[in-house]
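Batch manifest, entry 17 of 40.
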Amino acid sequence: LVRHPFTLWVAFVLVHFWIGALALYGPGYPLGDVNWVYKFWVQHGLVSGQWVGLQTSWVYPIVALLPMITSYAFGPALYASTWLTLVMVVDAAAFAVVMAFGRDRRVAHVAWWWLGLLLALGPVALGRIDAVAVAVAVVGLLCLATAPRLAGVLLALATWIKVWPAAVVAAVIIAVPSRVRIALAAAVTSAVILAVSIVLGGGANAFGFITQQTGRGLQIESGLGTFWMWDAFTHRPGASTIYYDTSILTYQLHGQGVQTAAAVATPLLALVALALLLLGILVARRGASASDLLPPLALAITTALILFNKVGSPQFVTWLAVPIILGLSTAATGRGTSFRFPAALALVIAGLTQLIYPYFYDQLLALNFWMLLMLTVRNLLYLTLLAWAVWSMWRLLSPGVGVELVDESNWLPRVWPFVPERDAAARPPRVQAD
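Output type: structure tokens
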């Protein structure tokens, strides 16, 4: 019964209604970005004709503006409710793909896990633009085996909503044999988006999101900021302090060494990402299959983008859904590495994050010992997740790694319904090196 599509859809609706109710009526203000920031950007554009991302630089890629404008369809009073409804619709499309449109009961547990992650993370899982990018990226990755060109289009689209999926695209190009088709589809999609942006008056502002983040300080929830949070807890003379940055509407750290840490954060992140991609290339050259390499590589680079990011926003947890759903779906076909451990770890990370924000965020700002301990444990779990992903790739360098599949279309469940099912007997078995 728990694997039946009807049960899954009932659970999907209940989870989204529950999270939506918490977002609208629960404690804290988890829809602050939606009601205060997204709605303001849209209203400003409608009134002045000056749109962020077009006439002015913006922190997000230009396609992120579309769901924000769409949520204004029923006016400002219903903006938050419309936003939650829109995210639910986008999630529903992705959920249908995750559960293979109900045709493959083997992936039912993957759909349940995603619902569990949303429930564990709470309102912020739906109350940020990241929710849309995650849903699009999930569908893109799951279409890699059966519809690589569509996968390239969707992954490019996700990148133009929130830039972090670009790293996943790099991982895909390294690990997947159909990399040329995927890369060309992504490039054409990006070119079309840029052309539309230029026609609408965007020009150079289309890439404003690259420079808009450079001046940010070290956010209090970030992994890199953990040391200075404990330094602030000591209240010693000259200890670090927390302040509210009114320009970017977030709490950041001030103290000895903080500016240096913030300055090196982006180069450090780039170096770590480059090292992970180089490891992925090395493993791929040793003959590792896409099913063995891509899930841990995507998880490693996604976790690194979170752990070494100077921002550290709670919605970053949703990014983990993309590589973990890929890993769980791959394992459901009997291929790749078991993703039970990272899946369980991500649920704990999400649960701790929901406690931190929005429910006890004021206690974190007050430097409560238990909240600092919870934040530290959460960030250490990110580090554990990264270590597991790196280990999963490193072990592929040992003798016995799976040889790349001859038929590259059978390493993921057939989630795309418009591709005819092949004769299963015609599929070559997976080959293992002795």
